[in-house]
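Protocol step 4 of 5: obtain the predicted structure for the target chain.
Materials: sequence only (see below). No template structures provided, no constraints applied. The aim of this step is simply to have a reference model before the mutagenesis design in step 5. Sequence pasted as it appears in the construct record:
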Amino acid sequence: MKRILLAGFGGQGILFTGKFIAYAGMLEGKEVTWLPAYGAESRGGTSNCHVIISDEPIGSPLVLTPDILMCLNLPSLNKFEEAPVQNGTLYINSSLVSRETTRKDVKAYYIPATELAFDNGMDGLANMIMLGVAIRESAVCGREIVSEAMKKVISERKKDMYDLNIKAIEFGFNYKG
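Step 4 output (structure tokens):
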């Protein structure tokens, strides 16, 4: 079972990233839950999303102690830093998070995702770059399922962003910061 908590500002693609991971899990034949946080969070406050992927039925969609925590901004790290399990994994957008985690019992990856996205013509896709790193390091889904999962989650209105989203995931997967 993988319990994943994604957090950031509204507009950073947190809910989209969680939806992508959930769909990828379904395509791989897993049991999944996806619990997004809506409301005022989607307009600039902290937004978060709970995703669970399991081989067994899932009793609750809440992720109180994640195995994987992805923080795209400092308020999210401040709020959820203590939540991951011992030996869990943190993915931190070091472009917007000005400090390192205080946790010594977790593996932390610092990815300047916002800066990388901007510098490489993928502005607004820091979430997908971070997802690529998480796919490589934590196998949140199989690399071979990325294209099919993206087709399932990208909206008709944003279909023109399909290739750029795939490029950003691949960029993150290959990033060796």
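Step 4 remarks: Residues 2-174 form a domain with the Pyruvate-ferredoxin Oxidoreductase; domain 3 fold (CATH 3.40.920.10). The chain is about 35% helix and 20% strand.
Proceed to step 5.
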